[in-house]
Structure formats: C-alpha cells, structure tokens
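Recall the central idea of this unit: under ordinary conditions, the amino acid sequence of a chain determines the structure it adopts. In this exercise we apply that idea directly, starting from the sequence alone.
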Amino acid sequence: GWCLALAPAKETDLEHDLQKLDTLLQESFVHPNNGILEMVQQERDRYFDDLEFAKADLLDDEIRLLSAYRDWLNFLYVAKDLSFESPQLTIAHGQLTHAELNGKSYHFPADNPPYRGNELLALPLAAVDEMKIIYDYIRERAHA
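Accordingly, the structure predicted from this sequence is:
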C-alpha cells in the first residue's frame, strides 16, 4: 500500500511534494499495520536460518520495541471510540461511565473533547491511564 504513495511523475526537482511526504510518514509511522515489524521479523528469521545468531539477537530488541509501538498505536486508535455495555458496567469513549457494585450504582462523567484533524492520536491526558486499563481488559476478554 505505501508504495502507491510514491508518485515520481508528480515531483519536480525544485518543488517538494508535502502531501506525498505526509502520506509516507503516516503510512510508515502512524498506522499500526505498516509492515515494518513483519519486515524486521523476516530479516531476523533469515539471519537465524543462516545461523547468524548474533545478528538475529540484535534484531530481537528492535522487534520488541516495534511490537510495543504497534500495541500503543492500536490503543491510541481504538481508545477514544471504545464502547461497551453490560448490566454491571458501561464504557463510553474509552472511559467508565457507569458501574454497578455491591448493589450500588456509580456514574462517572466521560471526558470527550472535540479533536481537530491533526489530533488523530490525541487522548485526554487525565483519562489515558483509565483508557489503557479498560482497553487491556477488553482486549484480554476478547482473546479469552
């Protein structure tokens, strides 16, 4: 997909195509499924298959970092749109808004500010920890 963003026919020597640069940056770093992790894993596997264990080990840290980065990107994309409803709890905009516990009903306000186009991955700072806990809970529950 990202190769299609390259349009050499549209470029000139004097003019930089900022839209192309923006597209390439977003495809490379802002999308969780950009293929970079898979390329590094394939390279690591190739080194391992060629019995170059030292080189393969060097890529293990890179793979861990890229995996963690991908996990955070997935969280940032999903968190503010995460909703869930059950008799015991209600989650809206990635935040707990209602809970039933020990026969008592608890209601919480959700912080859902409007976002501009350049705030694609923005979240309310005060709610990030709560959103991450809820995201991890729902993700684990879905995989169970």
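The radius of gyration is 21 Å.
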